[in-house]
Amino acid sequence: MKTIKKITYLIAILLFTSCGKEECINLPCGGSNTNPMVDLIILIDCSGSMSSVANDISNQADTAISLALQDCPSDLRVTWLGLDGTWIGTKFITNHKTYLTGLGVTPLPANNEQGAIAIQDLSNNFDWRPGSCRAIFYISDEPINSNFGQALDDSETIKGITEANNNSVTVSANFLGNANFPTYLANYQKITSETGGQLFNSSNPLPANYYIQQSVFNSLVCNACNNCQINIQP
């Protein structure tokens, strides 16, 4: 992983030193005011209750993304990852651990509902494009770090916020069923608000065409740069 980071750093240096001093000072996050690079990870809880949601978002995604790009033109790269699992017949055909392993990373131990740990891992180790705006969208109907108690949920949420902020990642989330689980909601609110993202609350099952009608992808793409900082370090 160190080798990959060094290569990424060198590419970033070339990117930033290819312009004049004044241009570099004014270089926006994403590299452009009109067509910024946006790397967006869609990460979903892979417990059994999320099967219909995985299908719903997959079926709506192409239309929702197309509409989002009309509002916020972007050089958009979307990566669909299942949290410690996959959903056959959907866009979530890659396990997040398998993806990280392919980058030469040893993934953190995280089960299929431990979103806070996966957010830490992906913030640190995903192959973000140099200079891109970075965003993670997490979808679940469980506590953000699975059902292992409030104290652990709180501590892993704080770690997730720290790693997201350290890596300029904007975290948004869709928490399903908040009316039934109000005590779970606080950490979703915390991790999204403190990284510049947005929290969507919805029922499970989802209303028809939820991701299109609620303009979820518009928010994800248009606000992906909220936590972006031009801060290149070796």
From the structure above, extract its key features.
globular; 5 strands; 9 helices; five-stranded parallel sheet
Description:
The chain has helices at residues 2-17, 21-25, 51-71, 96-102, 115-125, 150-166, 182-193, 210-213, 216-222, and strands at residues 37-45, 75-83, 133-140, 169-176, 199-202. It is an alpha/beta fold and 234 residues long. Strand 4 (169-176), helix 7 (182-193) and strand 5 form a beta-alpha-beta unit. The relative contact order is 0.18.
Q: What is the succession of H and E elements?
A: HHEHEHHEHEHEHH
Radius of gyration: 17 Å
- Number of separate helices: 9
Spatial ordering of strands, largest sheet: 2-1-3-4-5
Task: Label the overall shape.
Answer: globular
Q: Which structural category fits the helices and strands?
A: alpha/beta
Number of strands: 5
Largest sheet: 5 strands, parallel
